[in-house]
Every structure is written in C-alpha cells, then in structure tokens.
Recover the amino acids of this structure.
C-alpha cells in the first residue's frame, strides 16, 4: 500500500482513500458525526492520520538505540511482541521494506511518573534533524492549528451546570494513541531498529509531536457524541470526566461506556470512577458536596521537589517544561499564582532552540516564592465559585503590587497597604 500511495498528490484521506485496517466502527462514527463541524475527522480515522512532516529533507537516520536500552533487551522484546500482536507495529524485517528511504529513530527507556520503565521511540533525536523537528507546532496540513487541551475549568463548568451534590464519573481509553492509524504514506518515517532487525509503527507513537493532536481531536468528537445523547463530559487526551444529577448519573455512566463500545474504542476499566461526589481528575480532587477543588498532596510534594531542584543557574528545557506542567495543576486551583509562572514561561520561550535554559534572578525569585508558598501557606484547597458574577471583572476585580493591594466591587473601590510581616 505504501508503494501504491507514494505517487499520490497528497494524504491518503484526500486522494487515494484506501482504507487502513482498524478496529474502529467507521460507519458508526460517520453516522453520529454527520453534522460535526470537523468534517475531516472520519476520513483520518478511516484512511489514516498524516504525520504532518513538512521539512524539505528527510530526518537523519539513527543506526543505534539509546544507551538505556542495553540493559533492557527483555523489556524491548516484550514490547515488540505486544505491539506487533496488536497490529500497532510491523516487523521484523532484515532490510528496508519500503520503496523509498526508511527513517529509523533510536529507542530509549523512559520512566513514567510512577517509576515504571517503558520503551519510547525517540523521535526528537537528533536535535534539529529529527522527525519531530520537521513537524510544525502551529500548522497541520498547511492549515493553522494549535493544540489546546481543556483544563480543570471545563470540569468546573459542567459541575456548576449540575449544582451542589451532583455526581461525578470518569472513564478512560486503553492505549488511546495506538487505537488510531497512521497514513500509509508516512510509515517510512516511523522506523526503528532492534537486534539487527527493522520495525516501523502503524499507529501513532507516544513521542510523535502530532500524536496528542490526533488523539485529542478524536476524543473531542466522542464528547460531542456523548453530549448529543443529552449528557455532559469533558475530555483530556484519553480521559473523560463527566457530571450528572443523581437521578441521571447511572444511565449517563452506562451511556459513555456503551458509546465507546459502539464506536469500537477499547476502554480501560482500571481508569473508571463511577458515580461519586469526590473524584480526582487531571490531578485535581473535585468535591461537589463541599464545592471545592484541591491539589492532591502528591502533586504538591512533586512541585516542591521540582522547584527546589531547579534552584540552580540552569535547567534542561525538558525539565523546565515538566516543572511548568506541574505548576499548571496548582494554578488551576490558585489562579493568582499564575503570575509566578510568567517569567519561567518567558524563559522557556526564549530558549526554544536550546537544550538547557539559563535561569535569571527573577526566575529564581519566583521559584523561591513557590517553595515558601508550598511549605507554609497553601493547604491545597480552593472553593468552586457558583455565582457567575464572581468571574465578571465588571462586578468584581482585584490587583496588587509589591507594597499594597486594591479592588473594585459593584461600583465601589478599596485599597490597603500590606502589613509588615507580608512585606518582609
């Protein structure tokens, strides 16, 4: 199929339209999405997602894997056996199976947040000449596109719609990226080597720059279908969080599972959280009886450790991205703390082409504030605001500088200097 499509003038989804093998129930997707604004989605699901590689030259070929793989041969063998069995990977081959040059990237062993080792295809190596280097972050198939993931605000919104004491529920997909398929035109970009043999991925690998976009656009459509059934949920990549009044929560939770089944999506039962008033979603504990949201103690400790570790003259760009990611969970509950992320975000932006970032005095001051805040001031809990006017700056607005604070409420102003203990 790859050879047949190489002469096509564009992605398989728009030109040859040769269906790719998939467990998804494509007719059901097309039926339920007949009025969906994203008209391309069903084509991508049926004919494969283009990687989005636009560079003029192919990435550099890697002939060796990362050093971390040397002591993990059994883990890699098990990984390849599983991925090939589930039709997410194709191989082994003694020679290039394509009619064009095959790009091989190195495998490496990375550890998840829980410390579990996993095999990752390192598509960002070598820096500047990798597969990911050739995929734009602000366009997809020559159209402007920026991936925007919903935050905890999306869950708060549907909690407020259902009111105090509403039921929460959660479901997730199993191997979400690997349930999708790559456009056969691009398979030669996703190669790798192991023990003298060649393999390539048929499904989006976790490390591919465009994989999160493919998955989010897919699960956005699932949320659309669920809402068309009369229920409410939000989705973050492969996780779905929903709310319902107690009298409708049981059918809502069942309807989401039935929807997954009818679409051919494989769910992950160990991610399920059925019918409760207190649930952790996106790292935030939500409580509809107390109408509160709180950062889990594990997240707070993780952020304190990251901030303490980062108090040096430089930090790797990857570590700074991870640090800002953890901060975002806390600022979802403590919005004013976002001001102490701004200088770090600016530093990340100015070092976009570097592997490490030099931290300025302002950066370190912000990190010191976080360390003090996390150790002594913050209990992790914030209230969910039910009244719409609380979010309307024309009714209520506050601000502060280094020495005093002020605000506006319903036509009246106030201001006050900070007391000495705070200033010190």
């Amino acid at each position: 199929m790859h050879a047949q499509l190489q002469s096509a003038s564009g992605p398989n989804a728009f030109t040859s339209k040769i269906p790719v093998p998939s467990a998804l129930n494509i007719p059901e997707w097309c039926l339920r999405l007949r009025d969906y604004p994203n008209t391309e989605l069903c084509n991508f699901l049926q004919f494969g997602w283009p990687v989005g590689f636009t560079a003029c030259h192919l990435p550099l070929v890697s002939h060796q894997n990362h050093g971390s793989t040397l002591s993990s041969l059994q883990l890699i063998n098990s990984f390849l056996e599983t991925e090939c069995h589930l039709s997410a990977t194709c191989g082994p081959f003694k020679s290039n199976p394509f009619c064009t040059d095959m790009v091989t990237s190195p495998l490496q062993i990375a550890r998840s947040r829980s410390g579990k080792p996993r095999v990752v295809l390192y598509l960002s190596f070598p820096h500047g000449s990798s597969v990911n280097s050739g995929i734009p972050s602000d366009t997809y198939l020559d159209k402007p596109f920026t991936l925007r993931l919903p935050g905890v605000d999306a869950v708060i919104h549907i909690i407020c719609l259902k009111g105090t004491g509403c039921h929460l529920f959660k479901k997730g997909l199993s191997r979400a990226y690997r349930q999708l398929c790559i456009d056969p035109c691009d398979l030669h970009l996703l190669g790798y080597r192991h023990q003298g043999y060649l393999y390539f991925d048929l499904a989006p690998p976790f490390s591919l720059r465009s994989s999160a976009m493919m998955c989010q656009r897919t699960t956005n459509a699932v949320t659309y279908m669920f809402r068309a059934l009369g229920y409410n949920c939000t989705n973050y990549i492969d996780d779905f969080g929903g709310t319902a009044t107690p009298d409708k929560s049981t059918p809502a939770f069942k309807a989401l599972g039935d929807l997954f089944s009818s679409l051919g999506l494989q769910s992950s039962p160990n991610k399920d959280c059925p019918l409760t008033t207190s649930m952790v979603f996106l790292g935030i504990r939500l409580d509809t009886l107390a109408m509160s949201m709180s950062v889990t103690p594990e997240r707070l400790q993780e952020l304190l450790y990251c901030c303490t570790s980062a108090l040096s003259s430089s930090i790797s760009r990857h570590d700074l991205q991870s640090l800002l990611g953890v901060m975002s969970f806390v600022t979802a509950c403590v919005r004013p703390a976002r001001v102490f992320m701004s200088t770090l975000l600016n530093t990340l932006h100015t070092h976009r082409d570097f592997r490490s970032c030099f931290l300025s005095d302002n950066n370190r001051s912000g990190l010191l504030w976080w360390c003090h805040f996390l150790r002594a001031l913050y209990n992790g809990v914030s209230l969910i605001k039910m009244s719409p006017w609380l979010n309307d700056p024309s009714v209520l607005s506050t601000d502060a500088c280094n020495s005093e604070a002020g605000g506006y409420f319903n036509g009246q102003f106030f201001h006050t200097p900070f007391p000495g203990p705070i200033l010190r």
